[in-house]
Amino acid sequence: MSNKVKNILLVGVGGQGTILVSKILSSGLLNAGYDVKMSEIHGMAQRGGSVSTQVRFGEKVHSPIMAHGQADILVSFEMMEALRWMKYLSPEGKVVINDYQIPSAPILFGKVDYPEGVAQIISKKVNATIIKASEIAAKIGNARTMNIVLFGALVKSMKLTEIDWESAIRDNVKSNMVDINIAAFKAGMETVN
Amino acid sequence: MTKLLTGNEAVALGVWEAGISYACAYPGTPSTEILENIAANYKKDILAEWAPNEKVALECAIGASIAGVRTISTMKMVGVNVAADPLFSFAYSGVNGAMILVSADDPGLHSSQNEQDNRYYAKFAKIAMLEPSNSQESKDMIKSAVEISEEFDTPILFRMTTRICHSKSPVNEGERITPVKKPYIKNPAKYDLVPSVSKALHYILEDKLKRLQAFSETTPLNFIQWNSKKIGIVTSGISYQYAQEVFGTNASYLKLGFTFPLPIEKIRAFSKEVEILYVIEENEPFIEEQIKAAGIQCIGKEKLPNVDELTPEIIARELLGKELQTIDIDTSIVPGRPPTLCAGCPHRGFYVELRKLKNIMITGDIGCYSLGGNEPLNAKDTTICMGASISMGHGAQKAFDLFDENKRTIATIGDSTFFHTGINSLMHVAYNRSRTITCILDNRTTGMTGHQNNPGTGYTLMGMPTKEADIEAVCRAIGIEHVRTINPLNLEEVKATLKWAMALDLPSVIITRWPCVLKKFTEGDIEEFGDYFGKCEVVADACTGCKNCLKTGCPALQYSKADNKVVIDQVQCVGCEVCKQVCKFDAIERKQKA
Ligand SMILES: Cc1ncc(C[n+]2csc(CCOP(=O)(O)OP(=O)(O)O)c2C)c(N)n1
Predict the structure, then answer these.
(1) Is the distance from the beta carbon of residue B422 to the nearest atom of ligand 1 less than 6 Å?
(2) Is B25 in the pocket of ligand 1 (CB under 6 A)?
(3) Class for domain B222-320, per CATH?
């Protein structure tokens, strides 16, 4: 498989805003001159299910989906989802994990417990950045910009800082939300050094 | 300008560019956004409508085609089963204005009840088929499909799959062809399919297929990409992208965009140039079977699976023995995350009471309410296809009664599914008198596929106010005397109504009427249901930690082990009060409105 193509995997829970992030990400990459493909699974997943978006970019991209072991970065909007999708990550890949738990149905109904020590299990194996995106977003003034905080961390981790993300954000959010989202984006970038 | 579009968005753009004037569909993943995009973006130029089911949708498009305009009908793959009757015969008539049927297949069953490969429909119905392999082709091929349809007098099966419909890739916009209406000329020898006409048309159809076959051999939609001749790959649709991902320039490709009739001679010539010939296709061996029948040697399904989605990973592993390294980590400790009924979903209250009944068989149907069959509600026995809950319930009830088995059947069906085909089944129940209890869960919208309007919502796809079908009046008109409409969030009312129906020896219908919690309320909804929103809270002192409320399956409720109490997530809660009603200790209260 072509090694020039970069692979980004965004995972989370329906309603967490992964779709907006993938929109901003892919439009920014396209405007920067890359070939981009993005794949998303809609449908049943919207009802509180696990969701994933794959973004692949490079000079020429064929498949919109990636293989196990191929993701250069895994950004998980929810803690245990990171572990669920780990098989997609390349052994040299990075993980950005939101320190935020959304218990799934079997946990809510008391069948099983939320798995413990997820962040530690992952950190032992790969380069992981764990951030409290919802706290950061709340501090900025709108907890719902948590997704954009994670996006900032993604951009920094992937060294994609040269791209004009502010325009991409402006094109994809409501005009009265532009400033706060740009602030969230910057705060997210600062979480990664 | 280049835009990043999904295949569905690209088809909508293609429909506009190709001068199509009329579009009719029934929603279904992964096809739904095609019509939604047409309605949202090209309102001024294209009339787009939701039909109650796919058969109606296709027939409307057929009528428009015969009248002389270019038309399209879109549906998920199982929808084509519903629309198959008009499809097969329209193949005999042929078109006036171009007619395209989009079949959106779902390999991998991301949101479907089976994994059927609809390419066989093209061969079975004897119509031409096109298969795009990215968004640019999704747009461009709509234009090609229009031309082929009119030139060869054939409806077109435009076959897409989930990864084409829902993946984004760059698309260049093109010129728009201004729609023109062809004259309508009465022509019974073409459009009035009585047996004598159809017999004559069948000969003509066979002749058309020969001409389409010749076209297939030469059209640029089927092209060869020469690289190394060690390996030759015949492929189509998304599999073409996957094949290139895996083999790059180490193989030559015969990429098929026009896949019925197949360009058999082109394939034969290609096979002679390469050392090994692979056929890479997702799901069934549609291409492979025809190649092998033509006496051409190839390798396909002996290596590649016909079950589940095909992926570059599977191709690399099975054909090249290559696999990427993955991280050695135990993921088995992660609990599942199945979809659930939302907090405040009106279906919940109904299921909480329904599951308590004894000696019943619950025939389910397809929609959000299917989730009432999951843990912890577990209130469903069967699912087959849309509308089947009522007719299966009838058949089962008759079977139980024939042998004096003490069981009642309860059919559960959504409003959109009722209008789809449930209505016919209910007519059967009324006509043939079974004791089936039919529960129509009217959440005032088509929930599962993303809130499309339907004949009961009072609005059209284009957002125009329209007549609202009255479900209760429909039930009575077809012969059900015992009909009650209730509020599913009022558990006492649900319980009493189920008891009433169970006591009847005649067919009955229970309609639960309450809007989907995610629905954007219409003026009518606000008037009828407007002020119920609020929040519920647990009174910590009163909560005994009995977990009874958790059995409602509401995702806003969470049990805290540390203090043996339940807490309600104030973000998700909408104050439906279902948990409040099941709590035996009055430990849940509605917050006073500020
Ligand atoms: C023949 C067919 N067409 C379309 C679909 C896709 N589909 C699944 S559920 C559904 C809508 C159900 O809506 P409704 O009955 O109102 O129930 P709700 O989801 O609102 O509870 C549709 C269109 C299908 N499964 N089968």
Answers:
(1) no
(2) no
(3) alpha beta
Phi, psi (5° rounding) for residue B138? -60, -40
B368 lines ligand 1 (CB under 6 A): yes
Closest CA–CA distance from residue B162 to any residue of chain A (Å): 8
pLDDT tens sequence across B216-252 = 999 999 999 999 999 999 999 999 999 999 999 999 9
Instruction: Tell me which residue in A84, A86, A103 faces B558 most closely, judged by beta carbons.
Output: A103
Would you call A140 an interface residue with chain B, using a CB distance cutoff of 8 Å? no
What is the model's pLDDT at position B561? Answer: 87
From the list B96, B216, B68, B106, the residue with the least C-alpha distance to B153 is B96
- Mean pLDDT along residues B54-65: 98
| B438 phi/psi in degrees, rounded to 5 | -100, 125
Distant-in-sequence, close-in-space partners of B96: CB < 8 Å, separation ≥ 6: B65, B66, B67, B68, B182, B184
pLDDT of residue A44 exceeding 60, the answer is no
pLDDT at res. A4:
85
Q: Give yes or no for a contact between B184 and B66, defined as CB atoms under 8 angstroms apart.
A: yes
Q: Is the CATH code 1.20.1250.20 the one for domain B535-591?
A: no
A34: nearest CA partner in chain B: B170
* ipTM, interface predicted TM-score of the complex: 0.95
Pick from B246, B324, B339: which is nearest to A68 by CB? B324
CB atoms within 10 A of CB B482: 15
Q: B291: part of which helix (H) or strand (E)?
A: helix B286-293
Taking the C-alpha atoms of B308, B309, B311 and B315 in order, what is their torsion angle to the nearest 10 degrees?
50
Across chain B, mean pLDDT equals 97
Mutate to test the interface with A, among B31, B37, B169, B368 (most CBs of A within 10 A): B169
Is A51 a residue whose pLDDT tops 70? Answer: yes
What does the angle CA B389 – CA B414 – CA B459 come to, to the nearest 5 degrees? 140
Chain segment A64-113, per-residue pLDDT in tens: 999 999 999 999 999 999 999 999 999 999 999 999 999 999 998 888 99
The 10s digit of each residue's pLDDT in B362-385 is 999 999 999 999 989 999 999 999
For chain A, what are the domain ranges? 6-190
Q: Using a CB-CB distance cutoff of 8 angstroms, which residues of chain B are in contact with residue A88?
A: 326
Contact A110 B547 (CB under 8 A): yes
Q: What is the pLDDT confidence band of residue A1, given thresholds at 50, 70 and 90?
A: very low
Could you tell me if the CB of B274 is within 6 A of ligand 1?
no
B249 touching A (Cβ < 8 Å): no
Residue B593: both structure tokens together:
């409105």
pLDDT per residue over B277-336, tens digit each?
A: 999 999 999 999 999 999 999 999 999 999 999 999 999 999 999 999 999 999 999 999
Whether A45 shows a pLDDT value over 80: the answer reads no
Q: How far apart, in whole angstroms, are the C-alpha atoms of residue B534 and residue B305?
A: 51
From chain B, the residues in CB contact with A115 under 8 A are: 333-335
Question: What would the pLDDT profile of B273-284 be if each residue is shown by its tens digit?
Answer: 999 999 999 999
Residues of B in contact with A70 (CB under 8 A): 324
Mutate: best of B337, B550, B564, B569, partner A, most A CBs <10 A? B337
Chain B residues lying within 8 Å of A69, measured CB to CB: 323-327
Q: Does domain B2-215 have CATH number 3.40.470.10?
A: no
Write the pLDDT tens digit of every residue in B498-522. Answer: 999 999 999 999 999 999 999 999 9
- Residue type for A144, please? R
Give yes or no for B346 touching A (CB within 8 A).
Answer: no
CATH superfamily of A6-190: Pyruvate-ferredoxin oxidoreductase, PFOR, domain III (3.40.920.10)
Check if CATH label 3.40.920.10 holds for domain B346-529: no
Do B2-215 and B346-529 show the same overall fold? yes
Each domain of chain B, given as residue ranges in start order, spans 2-215, 222-320, 346-529, 535-591
Q: How many CB atoms lie within 10 A of CB B295?
A: 8
